[in-house]
Amino acid sequence: MAKADDAKHWGVDREMSTASSKGTKGGKKAGRHPFRLLAESLDGSERAGKLYVDFIQTVTAKRVRALFFSPGLKKQIGIDDQTDEELAEEQRDEAVALGQLTADDWRLIRRLGRQSAVLDAAEVGGWNAIVLLLAGLRDAEGIEHPEVERQTPEQAQQSADETVAARQQERQAQAAAQSAGRDLDAALARLREQSAAVHVSMLDDAEQGLKAFEAEVVKSGWFAASLAFASGGREAALGVKGAEPLARPQLGTAGVG
User: Fold this and answer.
1) How far apart are CA 83 and CA 79, in angstroms?
2) Contact 14, 21 (CB under 8 A)
3) How much is the pLDDT for 109?
């Protein structure tokens, strides 16, 4: 685990769970790890985006996990499972914003692989050191310095606070939506169970009524049983619960011309 002190900030967590970020053996021609495909899709590669989606669908279907807890480990080390609502309400230590990088700045840093250098500069010299590092990267790549207004640390902190608040509200809204979705699923499940129970009860009543009607036919004959059923006088004997009496057929007169 000597890599924990590496300047690339490769810690124990990454050593255990992000082996794919190490790249592939045999050089670039051997392939690209999925997160490299994701980065290339953000740079405009449609093919890389499709390959990344294929990767996500495959690992999701197979439920592939890079790192997971063995049974009973969470309890032994004092980790409690939290619901989405609890995570949304959780108060965490606020980070101090030094400044805000533009999309072009971050794209340049990522393309050159200088993420760890940015973290080192921030730790040693703050935002001014990051600005100097960016200037050096642009000069080395022959990129003109953009004419943009740099934020002061106070402005960056205000922007960061607003972003944190917006994300907190978004997480709370997502948690509320998920909770409402679970409640709706539970209500639908109860409704399906009730509908199934009513359907079974109706089938049972109909079966009992049919058996009673058949017994009445054997006992009294078809005409008498039909007349009794139509009049509703023997609905209890026929086993039809709460059945409305059937209307008697209207007998009309027929003339012979």
Assistant:
1) 13
2) yes
3) 92
| Sequence-ordered list of residues with C-beta below 8 angstroms from that of 142, at least 6 positions apart, any chain | none
> Residue 208 CB: number of other CB atoms within 10 A?
14
Q: Rounded to an integer, what distance in angstroms lies between the CA atom of residue 133 and that of residue 126?
A: 11
- Give the whole-angstrom CA distance, residue 83 versus residue 19: 29
Residue 183 CB neighbours (<10 A)? 10
pTM of the model: 0.31
Amino acid sitting at position 69: F
Return the exposure string of 59-98: e unless at least 16 CB atoms fall within 10 Å of the residue's CB, then b: eeeeeeeeeeeeeeeeeeeeeeeeebeeebeeeeeeeebb
* Whether the Cβ atoms of residue 140 and residue 111 lie closer than 8 Å to each other: no
Tokens describing residue 225 = 């049983």
- Mean pLDDT by groups of 10 residues along the chain of 257 residues: 45 61 53 84 88 85 70 81 71 68 87 90 85 88 72 68 76 81 80 76 74 75 68 47 44 43
Give the Cα separation of 151 and 79 in Å (integer). Answer: 39
Nearest to 84 by CA among 163, 177, 194, 161: 177
Whether residue 16 contacts residue 67, with contact meaning beta carbons closer than 8 Å, is answered with: yes
